[in-house]
Fold this protein.
Amino acid sequence: MFNILDRYIIKTFFGPFLFIFSVLFFIFMVNIVWIQLGQIMGKGMTYFEIGKLLFYASASVVNMVLPLTILLSSIMTFGEFGERYELAAMKAAGTSLTRIMAPLFIVSIFLSFILYLFSNNITPDFQKKAINMRYSIAVTKPALNFTEGSFLDQIPGYVVKFDKIYGENAENLEGVYIHKKASAYENQRTIRAKKGKITIAKENSNYLKLLLFDGHIFEEDFANKDYNTRINQPDQAIKFDTLTSFFDISEIINKAIEQERITDDYRFQTFKQLYSTIDKTKKENTKSFNNINSDLVGQLSPYLNYIEKSQKFTKPIQPQYKLDTLKNKKQLEVIANAYNKIDALKITAKNREAEINPMLKSYSRIVMYQQRIIAFSVTCIIFFLIGASLGSIIRKGGMGFPVVIAIIIFIVFYVMNLSVENLAWDGSMNPYLATWLPNMVLLPFGAWLTYKALTDSQLFDIEKYKALLKPLTERFSKKKEHQRYQ
């Protein structure tokens, strides 16, 4: 059981922990709000729906917030202990630094286990709900797909622009422009209207109903007419007070419904379920790689001797004739022919590379998503070792120097994560190694800092480093002679 000192240490730790977690969670959420709020705010969604969507999207933020919170909280806690000489009093009472760190080490293990449960059980469900909610919004409120003042091709076969979108369900429009996508040999049609109203047709939900007011229709009848007739074709402009148009959006709705019914996406699965997805993806990639390899070998087959699969060693291919025995003109033809064949094979291989890269990227994404469920939990423990050791060495609390050190360490960790992620997606690094490499780099650093803290090392003592560099600096500085005061 925890004694009074342990409870005091834990209480001191959770004070800054809750504050820092709230601040960091808000900062990370601003990024999500900045990206998504512009697409949904003021377009017919209630504040409850917006809050619900952001709540579901916030699950992915916890994976990065909790390790950084533990790092900052542990640095500030032990820094304050050192600054108030409480750490020195504990050691004077016979309590070692290892014993002082023990209760918070247990707390960090508990928090890492909580993060694992959250990432494994809650995050997949929240991501599934967030994605399904986006697609359901796109189906029930199609105006959400439009942005004010921009030319968009959301409606198949048309380019549209709305100067203003407003209303409870974003159904009211101002400054409507609709242009039909057509070639130079098809009928041209453009509609301009001052106001409009957009809804889903009640008769058939696969059609978008657009009710326009006070506008013009500009048409040019070009279809099935020769060049001279098209040149002499007069422009046709039709003024209307009210115009009802229907646009087929079944393709958009069907796509949204299909996406909404996705249940086997890797982001919706737990750690154990991802094993089957990884095996399935690996088999599919292997099959595709074999097909690509067969195609490449098939292009070379007319120029290679047949080799049996049972043959262990391949004999060198003997040419049908020696190049030196041919005439100059024939030599040039043979060389040019061989060059063209090699160049064609290089182009084919490059095109195949464009097919291989997405498969490698998809496989690496799934593997890294699975491994990070555990990797980020381990990061919490490593960050505690680094934070507690740095705090006891620095012996400064508050939001000053300790926060700067913590942010630098987290930036290094974050950059390493992004770097190895890109290498894994390119196929240059094994995705398992890429996931665990940042932890593998930080763990020895944390162990070294812990050793320095246990031995009361003056790691950040500037005078110590000045003394070490003094023999070097004295060589480049002139000795001043003693001057007597006059």
